[in-house]
Amino acid sequence: MWPKKKTQKPTSLSSLDECITDRHVMLRFIAYLASHYALDSLTFWLETQVYKYIRNQDEMDSMAVAIYDRYFGPNGCGINSDEESIKEELAEKIKAPTRTTYMLLQNAIWTLLKLESFPKFRKDVPDPTEKLKPKQIRQMQQDHPEVLRLLDKFLELNKEHPIEGGFKPNVLPDDFYEEHLHTVLPTLAEVWKDRDLFLAFREYLYQQFANENLSFYLEAAVYETLPADQRLARAKYIYDKFLGPEAPVQINVDANMLSALTRAIQNPNENTFVRVKEKIHKVLETEWFPDFVVSPLYHACNSETIQYQKSDGGRKRSDTLVNYETLFDNTKKNEM
């Protein structure tokens, strides 16, 4: 009788955060992306991650320009972002590059890889920890030498400068801490725990004319806590304020989502705004918060000696602040 063939158990590594420092998994991920003509996004992320470790300013200047030319120049390969404003902003930043020059776009690409590309890869590859055959690796080295070089450089740097608790994508190498190369940046979830951080983020959105996103998110979150007899009036109020044809602070949602919501508010329940709220949360998390944490305003809110001018028209207590207090803030209820 022939011995039973052992079946491989699927790996428990389910997210890109867990797998990014595992070379065997990343080699399979690279092969997968290449087969789907989507390798440029990972190459860009690896290159900008390596870039953040640079300490020499001349080297930083040179690499910042090289990255821009490779992806956004006249003969650039491009990545999954075609907004002309991003190219224009980066063209200005590379004139005086810092480690944060590409961080906003890099975080957006990470989100794309993590939430779209990697789940498809895991679905199609049951055991991504299985090693590629030497012949397959040699072929990859021949076909994609640059991305393999960047992967190995990133893994080398991460090993030389380990982060407590494992690699974190929202970590910034920092020249000011000689004993630690990394400084952990906050996440959007920490905004709700830190009143000063919340106020600074709100101010940043005011300055960027995008404060309606934060206002809507908090309005919708408070709505979910209301008793049933208050939902109809509040749902109409939120719709008229943010989504209706004459909304004074209109948020950007697609036509299908708006149409569904227009019908839903006729008979609202606690989940009426959930889909739109999740969309706006993603906009805040991937489009606005990464730029905020590398802005002068974020650094100002962390310094006792620096103050910033508020842009909210001098209003002492906005609805946004009241809703924040209702949901998260257990501290003193007076805005500083």
Strand content: under 5%
In CATH, the architecture of the largest domain is Orthogonal Bundle
User: What's the β-strand tally?
Assistant: 2
> Strand order within the widest sheet?
1-2
- Individual helix count: 15
Mean pLDDT: 82
Unreliable residue stretches: 1-11, 176-181, 304-308, 312-316, 330-336
The CATH topology annotation of the largest domain reads as Regulator of G-protein Signalling 4, domain 2
Helix content: 55-70%
What is the element string, with H for helices and E for strands?
HHHHHHHHEEHHHHHHH
The major β-sheet equals: 2 strands, antiparallel
Count of spatially separate domains: 2
**What general form does the structure show?**
globular
Per CATH, the superfamily of the largest domain is Regulator of G-protein Signalling 4, domain 2
The CATH class of the largest domain is Mainly Alpha
Rg (CA only): 23 Å
Q: What structural class is derived from the secondary structure elements?
A: mainly alpha
